[in-house]
Amino acid sequence: MKKLLSLTNLTALFVSACLFVSVFAIPSMLSAQEPEYFSPALLQNAYQYYAEQRFEEAHNEIQNLFNRIPPAGYNYENDNPDEDELISAEELRLFDISVCISAAYDSFFNMTPEALWITRAVEETAKLQDEATTEEIMALLDTANAVSMICSMYQNEDYGDVLDAILETEKEAAPTDHEFFMFEIKALISCGEKLLNRDLINQAHSLYKFAVDEMKLEDYKMARLKKILGY
Question: Alpha-carbon distance 113 to 85, whole Å?
Fold first, then answer.
């Protein structure tokens, strides 16, 4: 069960959001109900909540920015901001989607199915302007739906079906879907423990080392995997 994963622009965006990078392009067409762009200062709470895995609060903070009347954006006439430092509504929505996906996989990491966060991500994805980005995210969400079903199998103690489903999902998952890769490691550990199968645990060790040495993944879930595997 080998993978070779590399960062894509979408994954880089998610990582950037977590690292508080706030330099984004401003799209030319946005909904009339929304501000065209946002001050990075308005997003500091959302970024902090996201970094602390307080996903509900991060999501609510972002939604409040979209829903505030008058809109919570900058006013060119009064503020004269530097455009390179602003966050567009499209990029803010992408950040919200990353929050939703991260929240879903937080549940999946505990082998618990999750539907609400996927639904929220689908709703926000439908509002995106860029078709290519929309298609890429929908592929990630298809994988997330499959993972949620895998977690349901695990809850039903169908561990053999879980392993089969992981292999099938792996074939369809984007090679840059790091969330799925980390879930796969955790699922191997969980099934290995339930089935008393040392080979599955060893496989999880191999994938973890690949994630660290080759993929250079840094994530709170990686820290949890490190502890679980005894490193």
Answer: 38
